[in-house]
Amino acid sequence: MPLRDRLCLFFTSFGFLGYLPASGTAGSIAGLALYWLVRSNVFALAGLTFFLTLAGILLAGRTERILGKKDASVVVIDEVAGMLLSLLFLPVDIRIVCAGFLLFRALDIVKPYPAAAAERLRGGLGIMADDLIAAVYTNCILQVAVRIVSARLS
């Protein structure tokens, strides 16, 4: 396998985490680790989220071609980016992080509308889209929950 293809697999499987059992959960945990590293800088978090999303869109389709399989489970860059997006612009609080992780994993598995339809898109966009939709839903739910709890405590 050419070096270019190995590098693509390394990146989209996020350092080969995608080869672990429960690869989606492993990718989400990697996203949590990255979040924890940059949590105090919203610009770094937003930039990292954007970079991983763009890289995933550009590289995940190539990984499909390399492996000859649509949305192969070894590709976890979508979960990493989705986990970061799930927590973007939220207060740094371990309870929110835990809720975000559980909610994102549930929504990524269930794939509420239009996530399942978006997954049918071709290439890297299709691989990334369903996780990004689950992340947006997660973020919106958490934003509302934070505001409701804040209003009740005021």
Q: Per the principal axes of the C-alpha atoms, what is the gross shape?
A: globular
Largest sheet: none
Number of strands: 0
Binned strand content: under 5%
How far from one another are the termini?
Answer: 60 Å
Total of domains: 1
Work out the radius of gyration: 15 Å
Q: What is the percent of helical residues?
A: over 70%
Kindly report the average pLDDT value.
95
SSE pattern: HHHHHHH
SS element count, helices: 7
| Poorly predicted regions | none
| Backbone structural class | mainly alpha
Description:
With 154 residues, the protein is mostly helical. The protein has helices at residues 3-12, 23-38, 42-67, 77-87, 94-110, 115-118, 123-153. It has one domain. The chain contains seven helices and no strands.
What is the fold's blueprint, element by element?
Elements lengths: L2 H10 L10 H16 L3 H26 L9 H11 L6 H17 L4 H4 L4 H31 L1
